[in-house]
Design a protein that fits this description.
about 450 residues, mainly alpha, about 0% strand, globular
């Protein structure tokens, strides 16, 4: 560990990194349950309302890879500020939408801007946080978003009740985006001292302890490729073209880890997203009323949220596998137990217990995808790699609900749960095989 580590100001990173993320998450959490209701109020069919609601995730998925170019071009802080502004534009479109198609356009813009904001925040924390507390910081960042998704719907419910209009919930996210942007403009970057819209050069960033220890091995390290160099200072079309070339070069250089360990990341995302779909469906299948089901799932969400820092401690002390494997195996067992318990007389009690078990397993893995991405990304130019890495996890999240719906339609919800359990075991095997290969034991 270098002598600079004790001087690291974690409180400044909490303000500049966590506070904007918390504000953005609260706003997004407020609008997610409102989107299908707003579409329905504009005359959309049930199917089209579901399509509009899914566009926020589609926008995130489409925006993941190109967002790496944006972040590399203008810097993390400026990208977060710009993403918040674009999100406000999309939200204003949602508030004045005269029909479901215009609402869909606004939701898609929010999704794309969310991808840019999330990647910029991830890249910022990757470069600003020393290695020895990286997992705790990133799992805490995951906890911040869990908190926002938990609190946001309650705020939206109160605002909609007071105003009597569904579209008023979009103003919550508008206010949160503006506050997040204002926070980023006012606060100094703890790594460089920059404030406002000035983009600091990479050379001004202090080296963290992962640079001195040489403990983070990326694919570029192991193949002997030279480290990325400082981008040119000129602007315009030539610079954008060079950044785009750097993006695809980064993907090609890291194709092995993206195909192998990235597939494990996709399965982590799939099991997590599948949990959010299958628990409400299972509650309906076992005969729980709406309020009881919401209470059980809400308590399970609180269990998940409570473990975010514990997950980071596990990863920082015992390594990334110590968090990833229990998460995947625990989720797999929970899916298998759901499939097995459907015919039992005590299936309601089993559902409650399994919902808590799923949340426990998911909580143990809080922040694992962001931490693995930060470990694997090139230290001096992380954004393009992180964009591709986030795409793998988001692809799994987008595919899982479709898989569960399709298998349930063709067979049954029990079979769908069993299929997810099998995928979880496959993902655990992939992580067990490839995490030690790409992350040396000195990380632990």
């Amino acid at each position: 560990m270098t002598s600079e580590t004790p001087a690291f100001d974690f409180r400044s990173v909490l303000l500049s990194g966590f506070l904007p993320a918390a504000l953005f998450a609260i706003g997004e959490g407020a609008i997610i349950p409102i989107i299908p209701i707003a579409a329905d109020s504009l005359g959309a069919s049930l199917a089209f309302a579901g399509f509009v609601a899914a566009l926020i995730l589609v926008g995130e998925l489409i925006g993941d890879v190109p967002s790496g170019v944006v972040v590399a071009r203008i810097g993390e802080r400026n990208a977060m500020i710009g993403a918040a502004v674009v999100s406000v534009v999309g939200l204003l479109v949602c508030t004045i939408a005269p029909n479901p198609w215009v609402l869909a356009l606004g939701v898609f813009l929010v999704g794309v801007s969310t991808a840019v904001f999330a990647l910029a925040r991830h890249a910022y924390m990757t470069t600003a946080i020393p290695l020895h507390i990286r997992a705790r910081a990133l799992s805490s960042l995951g906890g911040v978003f869990r908190f926002g998704y938990f609190v946001g719907p309650f705020i939206a419910a109160g605002v909609v009740h007071l105003t009597g209009t569904t579209q008023s919930a979009f103003w919550i996210h508008i206010v949160c985006c503006l506050l997040a942007a204002l926070t980023l403009v006012v606060l100094r970057d703890p790594a460089t001292g920059a404030r406002g819209f000035r983009r600091p050069s990479r050379a001004s960033r202090p080296a963290t302890d992962d640079a001195s220890d040489g403990t983070v091995a990326t694919t570029a390290d192991t193949t002997g490729r030279p480290a990325a160099t400082e981008p040119p200072t000129d602007t315009g079309a030539q610079f954008v073209q060079e950044e785009a070339h750097g993006l695809f070069r980064t993907i090609r250089a890291n194709r092995a880890v993206l195909l192998r360990l990235g597939s494990g990341a996709g399965l982590i995302g799939a099991l997590r997203a599948g949990r959010q779909v299958i628990l409400p469906l299972w509650a309906v299948s076992v005969g729980l009323d709406d309020s009881t089901a919401a209470l059980v799932i809400g308590i399970a969400g609180a269990v998940d949220f409570a473990l975010f820092y514990t997950s980071g401690q596990i990863m920082d002390r015992w390594g990334r596998l110590a968090s990833a494997l229990p998460c995947m195996v625990g989720l797999s067992i929970s899916y298998f137990l759901l499939a097995w318990s459907g015919h039992l007389d005590a299936r309601v009690g089993w559902f409650v217990a399994i919902a808590m078990g799923m949340s426990l397993a998911n909580g143990v893995g809080s922040g694992i995808l962001m931490t693995l991405g930060a470990d694997l990304a090139p230290r001096d130019h992380p954004a393009p790699f992180l964009g591709a890495w986030r795409f793998t996890g988001d692809f799994g999240q987008a595919a899982a609900p479709l898989l569960i719906s399709g298998v349930t339609a063709v067979a049954s919800i029990a079979v769908a749960s069993g299929v997810m359990g099998v995928l979880g075991l496959v993902g655990a095997g992939i992580l067990l095989r490839y995490v030690p290969r790409y992350l040396p034991r000195t990380l632990r």
